[in-house]
UniProtKB/TrEMBL annotation, chain A:
It is found in: Cell membrane. Residues 112-319 form the ABC transmembrane type-1 domain. Residues 14-24 have a biased composition (Basic residues). Keywords: Cell membrane, Membrane, Transmembrane, Transmembrane helix, Transport. This is Sugar ABC transporter permease. It is a multi-pass membrane protein. Pfam families: BPD_transp_1 (PF00528). It comes from the Bacteria. The chain crosses the membrane at residues 36-56, 111-134, 146-169, 239-257, 301-323. The keyword Chaperone does not apply. Residues 1-13 have a biased composition (Low complexity).
Automatic annotation (TrEMBL), chain B:
The keyword Nucleus does not apply. Its main location: membrane. Residues 71-263 form the ABC transmembrane type-1 domain. This is Carbohydrate ABC transporter permease. PROSITE patterns: ABC_TM1. It is a multi-pass membrane protein. Keywords: Cell membrane, Membrane, Transmembrane, Transmembrane helix, Transport. It is found in: Cell membrane. Belongs to the binding-protein-dependent transport system permease family.
Amino acid sequence: MSSNASGSPASAPARRRLPRRRARGSSLDPHETRRALLLVAPAVAVLALVIGYPVVRAVWMSFQADQHLDANGTFVQGGFAGLDNYKHWLLQRCGDVACPPGSTGSSFWEVVGITLFFTVVTVSIELVLGFWFAVIMNGKFRGRGLVRAAVLIPWAIPTAVTAKLWYFIFSYDGIANHLFGAHVVWFGDKWAARSAIIVSDVWKTTPFMALLILAGLQLISDDVYEAAKVDGASAWQRFWSITVPLVKPAVVVALLFRTLDVLRMYDLPAIMTGGGAGDGNDTTTLSILVINEIRNGFNSAAALSTLTFLLVFGVAFLFIKFLGASATGAEPKAKR
Amino acid sequence: MMTSSRWRTVRTYLGVAVIVVWGLAPFYWMLVTAFRDLQFTFDATPWPTHVTMDNFRTVFDTSRNHFGRSLLNSVLIGVVTTAIGLVVGIFTAYAMARLRFPAKNAILAVILAASMFPGVALVTPLFQLFRNIGWYGSYQAMIIPDISFVLPLTIYTLTAFFREMPWELEEAARIDGATKRQAFTKIMLPLAAPGVVTTAILAFIAAWNEFLIASQLSNDSTQPVTVAIASFTGSKPHVEPYTAVMAAGTVVTIPLILMVLAFQRRIVDGLTAGGVKG
């Protein structure tokens, strides 16, 4: 009993809340609601400030004109621009003419293509490798702690360091060329540079994918496999009819997070190639394009960043709608 | 039977070897290079040769780089961001895991959406705003945007941890006469400590990693190590200072590796608990 039991312990049970798992549809306790909203308010306020404000401001900016030349050839400052900034990107129009080759305006769709290419290739490779890693780590072997620590190292190294590390590995006299007896100028060629970026990203983030899939695998009880074995299912059948469907929710969440990460990828290509590969925009992602565009004007950059976040949310929406990603955390948690 | 199970063991250990090499080999190469003399940058011997501490001296040579300063900046930005994320996150996660209230799923969805938000969409408006109000290059110019991804992460991870806590103990404390606040701070918070520590590590690593916003909104004296490394210049002009960059990378990475080794189990739990991004 606590020291201040002289209070009103006797009345406590009467005021005690009902057990949490009440029947659905029962009315909410107004006190609890008020307390909850008070507790949640700071986070909502902070998020409104650090995300809500910039988003609203970016959208507002995207409809304003940057400093430009008017019909008389004099510089004009801003003003309402309607959809001009969006036309600039989506139709690649600079004023009344097509944007000149090499300008940021002419590269929009190319950059969207590159970003999607990175996303599809990186996430596919990661899924296969990550699944394989997860299956191995789910097996029984000595030194599991060591392996989990080893796999966390690429994840823990800051991306800027990863970029520099792989830039060194892929340098002309670097260890990659040495190991394979190759003489590839990795950052002088479009596809070589893209491959180098993909390898670096896959190295860094496969562990994350593997750990999420591993968490899913660990939820599957051995009994299910035993039962299937008794019923005569082959290893392959057990994999396709038990492992894959049961681990699917974990895989979809991992895919969702990784896909969104690659769609907004900046650090790796920005540090390794600066977005080019010798010349052009061969490794420019949408995020890099936004940053490059800031030099030309805040408002056109804001329109581009708005398009970027529409793309990211569009993809997230598709995931949640069609793959049933339930990343809201509302489901019961994995028991560890 | 014997051979099939032995084959499976062999296969498992081969796979384990692949995973360990995958995780360690590039990191090992960074270490080896960090201690190698600049002249022998491209020596391909797989063990340390031409060992020197010169690279580390170059890294901390204040006449060329602000690396030491950047290291402190990263610690400051990481600690403050983590602290804000934790304090605000604990309140929210408690409510999410423990209380019933309307709009709960809507709020959860907003927080999830926030975690998917592309950082680049923050840069343009904040760049302009911070220049207008004189915050460009300040610490808050990096800490405030960092909160946008650290806070969703702390809320998700903590909510997952809080869901699994023995909340009956809180009820028991209440019956014994503790106030709600006391029951939470005296009983539940200590029990939640492991989850809070894990979340703090994840948040700190995320903030320590940040590059995009810092690269745009910091100046020479406030830039964190990630930006410093990306723009690192060596001791000789026109020579890519790989060895010094690897030394800098080693310095930046070692604290994280130590954390990973010490809290490996917790970090895995934290990553998978919230299904949070890394």
